[in-house]
Amino acid sequence: xxxxxxxxxxxxxxxxxxxxxxxxxxxxxxxxxxxxxxxxxxxxxxxxxxxxxxxxxxxxxxxxxxxxxxxxxxxxxxxxxxxxxxxxxxxxxxxxxxxxxxxxxxxxxxxxxxxxxxxxxxxxxxxxxxxxxxxxxxxxxxxxxxxxxxxxxxxxxxxxxxxxxxxxxxxxxxxxxxxxxxxxxxxxxxxxxxxxxxxxxxxxxxxxxxxxxxxxxxxxxxxxxxxxxxxxxxxxxxxxxxxxxxxxxxxxxxxxxxxxxxxxxxxxxxxxxxxxxxxxxxxxxxxxxxxxxxxxxxxxxxxxxxxxxxxxxxxxxxxxxxxxxxxxxxxxxxxxxxxxxxxxxxxxxxxxxxxxxxxxxxxxxxxxxxxxxxxxxxxxxxxxxxxxxxxxxxxxxxxxxxxxxxxxxxxxxxxxxxxxxxxxxxxxxxxxxxxxxxxxxxxxxxxxxxxxxxxxxxxxxxxxxxxxxxxxxxxxxxxxxxxxxxxxxxxxxxxxxxxxxxxxxxxxxxxxxxxxxxxxxxxxxxxxxxxxxxxxxxxxxxxxxxxxxxxxxxxxxxxxxxxxxxxxxxxxxxxxxxxxxxxxxxxxxxxxxxxxxxxxxxxxxxxxxxxxxxxxxxxxxxxxxxxxxxxxxxxxxxxxxxxxxxxxxxxxxxxxxxxxxxxxxxxxxxxxxxxxxxxxxxxxxxxxxxxxxxxxxxxxxxxxxxxxxxxxxxxxxxxxxxxxxxxxxxxxxxxxxxxxxxxxxxxxxxxxxxxxxx
Length: 758
Fold this sequence. Notes:
Layout: H1 7-19, E1 23-28, E2 33-36, H2 38-43, H3 56-59, H4 65-75, E3 80-88, E4 94-105, E5 111-120, H5 122-143, E6 148-153, E7 158-161, H6 163-168, H7 179-184, H8 190-205, E8 209-216, E9 222-234, E10 237-247, H9 249-271, E11 275-279, E12 285-288, H10 290-296, H11 300-303, H12 314-328, E13 334-342, E14 348-359, E15 365-374, H13 376-397, E16 402-408, E17 413-416, H14 418-424, H15 428-431, H16 443-457, H17 465-472, E18 477-484, E19 490-501, E20 507-516, H18 518-569, H19 579-602, E21 611-614, H20 615-625, H21 627-632, E22 636-640, E23 646-649, H22 651-667, E24 676-684, E25 687-694, H23 701-704, H24 725-735, E26 739-745, E27 749-757
Parallel strand pairs: 22-24
Antiparallel strand pairs: 1-2, 1-5, 3-4, 4-5, 6-7, 6-10, 8-9, 9-10, 11-12, 11-15, 13-14, 14-15, 16-17, 16-20, 18-19, 19-20, 21-23, 24-25, 25-27, 26-27
Helix pairs in contact: 18-19, 19-24, 20-22, 22-24
C-alpha cells in the first residue's frame, strides 16, 4: 500500500536511487520495484524493461527461498550484507556480487520497504578463478616437466589439446578431438578401462588423477604417457576437467628394455652355442664364454692372458685390424669377416667373426663385443665343392671332339675323356694311371720347347714338365702342338694347360684341353697360297707398269722433241690452229707419265725404308718450301706440335704429304675471310695423329666424299687442279702403314687427319 504521508520521503528516495551511479534498487513491502538505478538495470540485463510496480520475484523467477527469507528479515528491520555471493542469472550464467540489503523508513519511522545495493564482481571472480586455475595447472606442469596440457569442457562438450599434447598423439595439426576420441587413444583393454574409470571418478567424485598408461597414436605407434586430470568445480558441480599430458615413452621403454637386454645379454653370453667375447681396445680378451673356449681349445684363464692377434692367422690380421680401425673411428657400426684362428693344438679353425663396439657414457669407445661361429666344416665342404665343380665343369663343357686330359703332379694321366679317345684312338683304360701325355706328342717339339723354357727360367726343364711348367708357376699356356694318334698319324692341335689346385691353393695336377685345328691349318695354307698368287700378280702388274712407263716416256720424249724441231725448222707450222693442241697433248702425256712413275714408286716395298723422323722438323720444312705462296696468300699457320714426337716414315713421302696438304689449304682458301691453317699432333696408342685444319672453301662430303682420293678427281673447278695430289698422298700414307681421314663442310673449311706409326 502506498501512503500519501510518506510520499515526500519516498519521492526523494526514488530520485536518489535513480540517480545513483551504483547498482541500487528500492522496493516496497511487497518487494515491488519503486525505483532502480541505471547501473542496476545494466548489471541485471533489465535495460529497456518497465519494471516499476512489478514484483522482483516475477522478474527473477529463479530466486531461491533463501533470498526470499533474507528479504523478509530485512522488512522486519534487519540489515544483511555479504562481500561475495553468487546466483544464476536469467541467461543461466553464474553471477558474482557483493550485496547490502536494509529497510527504508517513512516519516513516521515505519519500514516502507527495502533497499538493495549490489556490486557486480563477476569479472573479478573470473580473473581470480582463472589465476587460481592457471597457478594450479602451472604447479602440476612444473611437477611433470612442463609438457602438454588438455581440457574437457563438460558444459560445451568440447576437448582442447595443446600443440604438444597433439604432437604426442601424433595427430594432424588441425585435429580437434571429442571426449570419446581422447579415451579411444588409450590401448584397448586394461589401459582404456583405467583411464575411463579415473575420468568418471574425477567428474562424479571430484577426484584428481595421475596415471602412467599406454596409448596408440594416430599413426599406430604404441607410446607410454603420463596424464594428470584436475576437476574444475562450479556450484559444487564439475564443469570441466583439465590437466597435463607427458610423453614418457622413451624413458619407460628404455627402462624396460635395459632390464630385458641386460638379462638377455647375460643369458645369451653365458649359454650361447656360438663363441662370445668382450675384447678390450688393445685386443685383450676381457671376458669369454664357454663355447669360445671349446672352439679354440683355450680355457678362460688362458685366453685372458692373450690378445686376439696371438691366435689369429697372420694372413687375416691385416684385414681384421683395418676393419677394427674403421669401427673404432665410427666409419662403420659393425663388421663381419671369415678368418682363421689357431687352435691350442695347432690346427686351423675357420670362424665367422662379427664385431660391434660398446661406448661409455662419454660416447668414447669402451670395448668390443665379438661373436665367433665355427665354420670349419662348412669351409672344408666349400673347398671340396669348388674343386669338384672346377674339375667337372671343364669335363662337362667339352664336346666329344675336344681332348681333355687330366694328370697328377707327376704327369701321370688321371682322366681321359671321350673326345681324347675319338681324336687319338686310345681308350681311357689304356691311358689312365699308365701313361703321360708325352706318348701323344712329337719328341722333337718337346725337345725344342724344353730348350726355350730352360733358357727363359734358367732351370733344367725336361720331359712331361715341358708341357706343364708354365701352368705350375701360375700361368696359362696356349700354343700349337702336333699330336700323334695310336695309328702313328699326326694332326695339329691348339693345347691349353691349366693347374688344378686344392683348398690350400696348392697344385695337385694339370688339365690339358686340346682342339683339332687341322681344318684351320688347311684354310691357312689356302690363304697363304692365294697370297702367293696375289703377290706374283702384283709383281707382274708392277713389271707391266714399269714397261708402260718406260715405253711411254720414250714416245713422249720423241713427241716433245718433234714439236720443238717444228718450232725451229718450220716456224710457220706453229701458226696452225692444231699445233697448240699438239703441244698441250704432249705436255699432258709427260705429266701423266710422271704420275705413273710416282704410283709405281709407291708400289715397291717401303717397310725396309721406314725411318724414325722428327715430325716438327718436316712440318717446318714444308712451311719453308711453300713460304712464297703462304706469304702471297697472307695465310696464317699455327703449329701445335711437340718437338719430341717422332714417326716411322720415308723422308720423301713425309715431305710430299705435308707439302700437298698445306698447298691445298692455301690453294683452296676462301675469298670471304683471312686464310688460317692449324696443325696439331697427338699420340693415340701406336699412332701419331696429325691434324691439318683450314677455314677455306670446304667440300660437300655427301657429294664428293667417296671419290675424294680418286685419281684425277677435282671438286672446285680450279684450272690448275689435276686431281692427282690426294691420290698420291693417300697411297704414300698407306704405304707407310698409316691412314688418312677427312672432315669437311662447304664454305666452312676442311680437316685432314693423318695417322702415322710411332
